[in-house]
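note to self — DONT lose this again. spent like an hour looking for the file last time. sequence + predicted structure for the chain T wanted, 320 res
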Amino acid sequence: MTSSDDRYLARGPRVGIRPFTAADREEFTTLARQSAELHHPWLYPPLTDDAYDGYLARLQEPAREGFLICEHATRRIAGYLTVNNIVHGAFRCGAIGYGAFAHAAGRGLMSEGLRLVLHHAFGELGLHRLEVNVQPGNRESIALVRRAGFRLEGFSPDFLFIDGAWRGHQRWAMTSEMLQDAAERPTGSPHTPQPVVLQRPVPVFRIFDVARAKDFYVGYLGCALDWEHRFAPGAPLYTQVSRGALVLHLSEHHGDATPGSTVYTELTGVRALHAELAAKDYPYQRPGLETDEFGTSLTLTDPFGNRLRFNERGGSAETG
C-alpha cells in the first residue's frame, strides 16, 4: 500500500492519496466549480483562489489532515478527504469529510481512496476511531461509508449549520479493529448475503402544489427546505423538509404515495409548538390539543390531506 512515487502517501490499483499543495489550487477550484450541481446541497468546497488558500492554511493545523485522491491513469484529482477535529491521548479519534468531483463520480475511485485514507489514519496517524456525519438524504455518501464498513451509531438532530439551516445527521463510525476484521475476512462471492442494517425511515407525502406545500411546511410548520430534485426542468418535484429529527420527503410524482396518510411523531414541548403555530397568520389551520391515555397530541393536516400527529407522552393538558 506504500508507493515508490514520493508524491503519494499510499497507492491503490487506480488511485493514490497525497497532501494538498498550493500548486493544486487551479485544478481543485476548477473541478469544484464544475461539480457544484453534484455537491449541492451537501458540500461546499472552495471555489476561488482565496477560498482555497484559506482552506489549505486550515489543513496545516495540528488537528487536521487533508488528502487529495488522484487517479493514476490521468493524474487528475478525483476527489478529496479531510480528517478534522483530531484528538490524540486516550481518545485517538477524528471526523472525516470528503467529496468526489463530477468526472470521477460513480466510478468507485472514492471507495478506493477512502480505504487508503483509513489505513493511513489507523496506521501512520495513530488513530483508533473515525466518525462520519451524513445528512439522511445524501444516499450516495451513506452508500460510500456503508461499503467501507462503517457502522450506523445514531442520529444527531440539528448537528451542523449547512445551506442556511441546522441539519440533522446520521452518525457513522469505524474503529481500527473493524478495519482489521474487514481485511482478514475472506472475500465472498458477489452473491454472499450482506448484513441487514436498517436506517431511520423517511415518510413520503404526495403533494400537488409546490407553493402551497412550501407555505405549509416551511412557512407554517417551520421546517427547513433541505434540497430539491427534478429529473428535468418542468418535471415533478421531489424534495426534503426537516425540523429537528422530523424528516419528510414531499413528492409530486404519481404513485410515490397516497394522499391522506398519517405520520406519528413523538416530541417534548407540544404545548409550546401549539402556541407557536397559533401565533402565525395561517388561515387554513386552527389545531387544538387533545389529551388521552397516550398523552397530549396536536394534529395538523397539510393542504393535500396528509396528517402530522405530534404526541407528548404523559402529563395532562386542557384541550385547545
